[in-house]
Design a protein that fits this description.
With about 550 residues, the chain is an alpha/beta fold. The protein has 2 domains: about 290 residues, 3-Layer(aba) Sandwich (Aldehyde Dehydrogenase, Chain A, domain 1); about 190 residues, Aldehyde Dehydrogenase, Chain A, domain 2 (3-Layer(aba) Sandwich). Helices cover about 40% and strands about 20% of the residues. Strands 16-17-18-13-12-19-20 form a 7-stranded mixed sheet. A 5-stranded parallel sheet has the order 9-8-7-10-11, sandwiched between helices. Helix 9 links the parallel strand 7 and strand 8. Helix 1 packs across helix 5, helix 7 packs parallel to helix 8 and helix 18 runs parallel beside helix 19. The radius of gyration is 25 Å and the shape is globular.
């Protein structure tokens, strides 16, 4: 059965490996929630499957579990009321260690086959996962379908492909023969085994439970480590479904289903620190706040810690030959998912004296007003606004909106948006503020949610200097530059290379600065405080295992 999994999906794996090398567009998992692609009844079946989970106990089991946990509440205004087994950490660790004894000895192709089959099944469940993602994160459905389903699956496959590359770079066996002159040569047979580190802890986030967790889950499992998934207390269901699928595939393949387990908790009784500080945990992957990410990096020194944290993403506007396109592009980036993406721009630097455009000179105030107007126009149609904004995941973000509006120089006020289908949904339009370069304390901290600043700098040189300092100190995942001057573009590239941040140049069309495509875009560089790891490069995978050799005379 195991070899059948690998053989059945080998072509997909080979194409994924090739795509990681060429960096060209490729995906085996279509992002369009189309009946023609996924089946006539796929949407209805997926929604029904999601609703069938509400108000019930999870299907998952945990060794030694006593009681249940679960307080998930949809940002669209209703409780999910799903109960998950409450983890007993001692029993979870023991079960993970026991499962690892067989998993770590499995051939690379067998582990890869399990991962490939799990991806295939998850893809068929993309609608169910889409609704689960929508009602835990607040993403609008199409985005939830894409980010929770096919795009997350792409990232999982990407990590698997790179892990497979790293594990198969050299032969698994060799006959070593050293000439000895007149004497017979020395001959040895050598075997090289992938030796995993042990147990991986994957700590999920509230906004992108699968997209941010799949790289770690698939990298860990592919390299022979067992996995304990600790979801965010309000983002459990998409990862619970994922663990269900993996456990079913593992069982069919003859492996212990506890090779991957879900350890859910509640906000009032968190267990992430308790799990992270267990000496048996040898790998930790975390996406979320800088505060907890730094704590893990500083305290979980017994484990290899991979973090994707927060930062102050920046845009520098110097000049443009497509002012309307620039404004449309930025307006969408600031509005998408109500600014709750780790790649959403926050700080937009504009020369105090204004910029040159295809529409003539624009003053600083005109640029700020045009951006506010572009956001208003983008969200003027209620149906479109619903699809773009989604809902606010955390009520604290709404409180932050209110406080920032009360103390800042408002260009565009945030308004409560009435969702046509969910009256209690937490929907708010973006808040746009003006600031001065000297008011660094105002914009130097991440303001999570739909909050951004248009900042007056002396000139573009100062804008880039401010970006350099912010990224070095606070970190950033993305940087955008708009300019018609090649020297300015080169200087921006120098800044990006200097501080290790991904740069997007003159985006005015259908690609946005906060989007990252698997197999082509590296998400986070690991080279600044926004995170110490990258989705997905060889460094993200290669340290999850070591090579152990066994040799003997022939």
């Amino acid at each position: 059965m195991v070899s059948n999994f690998f053989d059945a999906h080998l072509q997909v794996l080979e194409k994924a490996v090739d795509a990681c090398h060429t960096r060209e567009f490729w995906t085996p998992y279509p992002e369009i929630p189309s009946r023609k692609i996924y089946g006539e009844s796929a949407a209805a079946d997926g929604e029904a499957a999601f609703k069938a989970r509400l108000g019930r106990a999870s299907r998952l089991k945990l060794p030694g579990s006593g009681g249940t946990v679960g307080t998930e509440f949809s940002p669209y205004g209703f409780p999910l009321d799903i109960k998950y087994p409450k983890p007993d950490i001692e029993n979870v660790i023991a079960a993970s260690k026991a499962a690892g004894r067989t998993w770590k000895r499995a051939p690379v192709r067998d582990r890869a086959g399990v991962c490939l089959e799990a991806l295939n099944r998850l893809n068929r469940m993309s609608f169910e996962i889409g609704f689960a993602t929508m009602h835990t994160t607040g993403q609008a459905f199409v985005m939830a379908f894409q980010a929770g389903g096919p795009h997350a699956q792409d990232r999982g496959l990407e990590a698997l492909a790179i892990a497979y590359q790293q594990m198969t770079r050299t032969s698994a066996t060799a006959i070593w023969e050293k000439p000895q002159g007149k004497h017979d040569p020395i001959r040895m047979e050598k075997h090289y085994y992938v030796a995993p580190r042990g147990i991986g802890l994957v700590i999920g986030c509230a906004t992108f439970p699968t997209w941010n967790s799949y790289p770690a889950i698939f990298a860990d499992l592919a390299t022979g480590n067992t996995v304990i998934v600790k979801p965010h207390p309000n983002g459990i269901l998409p990862l619970a479904i994922t663990v269900e699928v993996f456990q079913a595939v593992l069982k069919e393949a003859g492996f212990d289903p506890n090779t991957i387990m879900l350890a859910a908790d509640e906000a009032d009784h968190p267990i992430a620190k308790d799990l992270a500080m267990r000496p048996e945990i040898t790998l930790i992957d975390f996406t979320g706040s800088s505060e907890f990410g730094v704590w893990l990096e500083d305290n979980a020194r017994h484990a290899r810690v991979y973090t994707e944290k927060a930062g102050t993403n920046c845009i520098v506007i110097d000049s443009t030959d497509d002012f309307k396109g620039l404004m449309r592009n930025l307006a969408f980036s600031l509005s998408l998912y109500s600014g709750q993406m780790c790649t959403t721009p926050q700080n937009i630097f504009v020369p105090r004296g204004g910029i040159e455009t295809d529409e003539g000179h624009k003053s600083f105030d005109e640029v700020a007003a045009a951006l506010g107007g572009a956001i208003e126009k983008l969200l003027s149609d209620p149906a479109r606004a619903t699809d773009i904004l989604g809902a606010i995941t955390n009520p604290a973000s709404i409180e932050r909106l209110t406080n920032m509006a009360a103390t800042g120089d408002v260009v565009l006020a945030s308004k409560r948006f009435n969702h046509p289908a969910f009256a209690e949904a937490r929907c708010h339009t973006p808040l746009l503020l003006k600031s001065e370069a000297a008011e660094r304390d105002q914009f130097a901290q991440e303001c999570f949610g739909p909050i951004s600043f248009v900042i007056a700098a002396a000139d573009t040189v100062q804008s880039l200097d401010l970006v350099r300092g912010l990224v070095r100190e606070k970190g950033a995942i993305i940087l955008g530059i708009y300019s018609t001057d090649q020297n300015v573009l080169k200087n921006a590239e120098d800044v990006a290379l200097d501080v290790g941040v991904a740069l997007s140049v003159n985006l005015t069309g259908g690609i946005f600065v906060n989007q990252a495509a698997a197999f082509s875009d590296f998400h986070v560089t690991g080279a600044n405080p926004a995170g110490n790891a990258c989705f997905t490069d060889a460094a993200f995978v290669a340290d999850r295992f070591r090579t152990v050799q066994v040799r003997a005379h022939v």
